[in-house]
Design a protein that fits this description.
By secondary structure, this protein is of the alpha+beta class. It has helices at 18-28, 89-101, 169-179, 188-192, 237-249, 302-305, 308-314, and strands at 8-15, 32-39, 42-51, 60-65, 78-86, 110-112, 115-121, 127-132, 158-166, 183-185, 195-199, 208-213, 227-234, 258-259, 263-269, 275-283. The strands form 2 sheets. Strands 2-3-4-1-13-16-15-14 form an 8-stranded mixed beta sheet.
């Protein structure tokens, strides 16, 4: 069986305040909260998942809540930007006005790697950008939720290119190309901007990593407003287990098989210390909630359900039920 990663599965970042995070990503960015659960490695804190109408793989932006965490110290050895896809160039004008309306500082619209992009930060300093799909080909975007505060035709379609910033790009590019099977994309504008593009699967924004080499930065210190890891899409458990074998054969330390209930995963760090995950497309987020009510209640996988009372006592209330 030939293994080929299908694209970006999700990106997980840190927040210091789940309530404010929920308010920004749903009421400003118009994303749907598709799962309100807990960090399975620290069940005392929330893990929030945002995405398109049902949280298709490739649309999921997730946040671990770490109360009282220090602000992220931006730097090297990091996932330094999360791009979010929109339909076309004209939609960026809508978003310029919307961000202005909410007092969100942003850069001017400019072309990065040949595509119009609008860079901004969330209230905790998370580095984000909106990228136009007008001339993009490859992995299809998701479908914005029709009950969002943002009109469907202006909505966020999913994750775009994920930017990695490292002091020495060669070891990371070796992992991307020679282990994970990414292809280098020739893009003169990107190279002039100091970016090397790699893509997998059908390619395009939903399957791209932008690699930036910087020798003038110190290492990032992860905190609220920083990114914890990026996950790439494997078709199913069979393929995931083949990736585990491939990592073991390459003698790369990894987590082995991890059951996250909504998907199955493995984790490893590339040579510059950035945490990569490979995650299966399924089973999906409607496994334990009706599609119409995703994210409205605290969802726990079966192996945590017996601890529900203990978990709920420690969590601060986060009201997400929609009228």
């Amino acid at each position: 069986m030939r293994m080929e990663l299908k694209g970006i599965h999700h990106v997980s970042a840190l927040t210091g305040d789940a309530r404010k995070n929920y308010d920004f990503y749903t009421n400003v960015l118009g994303m749907r909260l598709i799962k309100k659960t807990v960090n399975q490695d620290d069940i005392s804190v929330y893990h929030l998942f945002y995405g398109d109408e049902v949280g298709h793989p490739g649309t999921e932006l997730t946040f671990f809540e770490i109360p009282m965490s220090a602000p992220n110290y931006d730097g090297n050895n990091s996932i330094s930007n999360i791009a979010l896809r929109v339909a076309d160039d004209g939609v960026l004008e809508y978003w310029t006005q919307r961000l202005d309306h909410f007092g969100i500082k942003h850069e001017r619209i400019k072309k990065i790697a040949g595509h119009k992009t609008l860079a901004f930060r969330d209230p905790e300093g998370q580095r984000l950008s909106l990228v136009s799909d007008e001339y993009n080909l490859g992995v299809e975007g998701g479908m914005p939720w029709d009950k969002s505060v943002v009109p469907v035709n202006q909505g966020i379609l999913g994750l775009g290119p994920i930017k990695l910033t490292v002091p020495n790009s060669k070891p990371t590019s070796d992992i991307l190309e020679n282990l994970l099977g990414f292809r280098k994309v020739n893009n003169d504008q990107a190279e002039k901007q100091g970016i090397t593009i790699y893509e997998t699967g059908k390619g395009g924004h939903g399957a791209q990593v932008h690699l930036e080499e910087r020798t003038d930065l110190s290492s990032e210190r992860l905190g609220k407003g920083g990114v914890h890891h990026v996950a790439f899409r494997a078709a199913d458990e069979l393929e995931l287990k083949q990736w585990i074998t491939k990592l073991q054969d390459a003698r790369i330390p990894n987590s082995g098989f991890v059951d996250r209930f909504y998907f199955r995963s493995l984790y490893f760090r590339e040579p510059n210390g950035i945490l990569f995950e490979i995650a299966t497309d399924g089973p999906g987020f409607a496994t334990d909630e009706h599609i119409e009510h995703l994210g409205e209640s605290l969802a726990l996988p079966p192996f945590l359900e017996t601890k529900r009372e203990q978990i709920e006592q420690k969590l601060k209330p986060l009201h997400t039920k929609r009228s």
